[in-house]
Amino acid sequence: MAHQRIRTFNTRDTYPEQQLDNDLAQAVVTRGGRTVWMRGQCPQNLDDAKNIDSHDPAEQTHKVMQNIVQLIEEAGGRIEHLVKVVVYITDVRHREAVYRTMGEYIRGVHPVSTGLVVSALARPEWLVEIDATAVIPDEAS
User: Fold this and answer.
1) For the whole model, what pTM was predicted?
2) Percentage of the chain with pLDDT > 70?
3) CB 3.0-4.6 Å disulfide test: which of 49, 80, 126, 141 passes with 121?
4) Considering only CA atoms, which of 37, 36, 41 is closest in space to residue 121?
């Protein structure tokens, strides 16, 4: 693992009443490297900013996470270099679908995470937006 992950846990233990399976940490320590600050990623294509044709929170989250993976890779890193996510959802009822889907991408990574329910995002059809930060270690360059 590129970074020190402090107090790793899985949301299935923290939120047993929900069907979640996210590998997270209470803190992540990085040393050196290059920080990748990403714009909040939404369910749209990176190349043309077109929205995906879906109002399903899981499908929207797949696109958001694919964008995050792509941006980290374009910066020369891997998903394992992800250190923090802030998840914005417009309806608390979408939480499980969003976090289950995000969990598919961060299995074994253990970033720190903050989740917020907001009244709206920049476009009314968006159900999820994820702000992500990655640190690519010097030895990965």
Assistant:
1) 0.90
2) 98
3) 126
4) 41
